[in-house]
Amino acid sequence: MSDEDVNEQIKGTAVYHTLDIVSQTADIPLVQWFCSPAEAFFASTEEQLRRRFPEFNEEELVGLIEDYKKENFALERVIQEYNLEMHVDHALKLLDLRLVG
């Protein structure tokens, strides 16, 4: 596969299109709204969630925590198995976006 083929495949991804659309409409630097996949893991404590969602009962809070754990697991899997970080970096380079403030 040629470099141009790889570039065309990256340009066809949701990651590329999302970064492209947001970068064209956002009036703030990329570093202020973008978070790499490796930095996107949910890390709030149970106490932080209690304060954020005081209306949740214990069952709802446990369910929310379990949902976040599942999302973290799925994100980790995609990062590792599909080289998500590499594809996001490639999309950023194609769009000439830099993570500088």
Radius of gyration (CA) equals 17 Å
What's the shape?
elongated
User: Mean of residue pLDDT?
Assistant: 89
Number of helices: 6
What is the ordering of alpha helices and beta strands? HHHHHH
Can you give the helix content as a percent range?
A: 55-70%
Low-confidence region ranges: none
Domains, number: 1
Task: Please report the distance between the alpha carbons of the first and last residues.
Answer: 35 Å
Main sheet properties: none
**Strand-residue fraction?**
under 5%
What structural category do the secondary elements indicate? Answer: mainly alpha
Counting DSSP E segments of at least 2 residues, the number of strands comes to 0
Question: What keyword list fits this structure?
Answer:
mainly alpha, 101 residues, 66% helix
Description:
The protein has 101 residues and is mainly α. It has one domain. Helices cover 66% and strands 0% of the residues. It has six helices and no strands. The longest helix is centred in the last third of the chain and has 24 residues. It is elongated and about 55 Å long. The termini are far apart.
